[in-house]
């Protein structure tokens, strides 16, 4: 039985990288029936795309997303920095699938501003080669972490996240996240938005931000590498979905009829974009 959800926001899936949790994401997508699906950037990691690595599980996620668009579900692909090649196709529409750099939705009379968030990242804007190098290092860290967690699970111990430990203990990382959230929120308040939703920093969050000009609700959908999280809106309420808290309730449902596209066809599409 699928859950009806009015709006779902996911980001930072990074299909095409070793750290991507495509199988878990597919289980989640198979468990829901959204009215609107927002893909808020870094869905396909074009920066690190390799023809030699794009597993079937990653392809199935793309097929699932495309199948949503054929079933009267509005699908917005908001571009991020790792899939910035798609920005030249902003405002492209194909049926219910729309590519855009940002979207503004009115949800139950609340103005909601959704964008990826890399515009705030100076390292991406001014030193792209350095950001790409950092992305490769992050991917390697996640790969090593995955191997170590496999051994930890075999020994009956809890998983451990290197990057979360770094983010939580390095003052510059903590400050960057705080500055990011505050900057997005202040811009939203100045532009009279009730909600602002970002991705990019892989930090799921829902919190109210106040300043002298007003307040807004800042939200972040997290990622599908470490946090395995999404934002959901239903019954006039926002919540963060955490896969680890619900995985026992999700069933494998890989038999749905979805759009046919083989591996080579997908590689050709992504290569042409890049």
UniProtKB/TrEMBL annotation:
Residues 7-204 form the Calcineurin-like phosphoesterase domain. It comes from the Bacteria. SUPFAM superfamilies: Metallo-dependent phosphatases. Transmembrane segments: none annotated. GO terms for biological process: lipid A biosynthetic process. One of its GO terms (cellular component) is membrane. Keywords: Cell inner membrane, Cell membrane, Manganese, Membrane, Metal-binding. Signal peptide: none annotated. GO terms for molecular function: metal ion binding; UDP-2,3-diacylglucosamine hydrolase activity. This is Phosphoesterase. It comes from Kaistella jeonii.
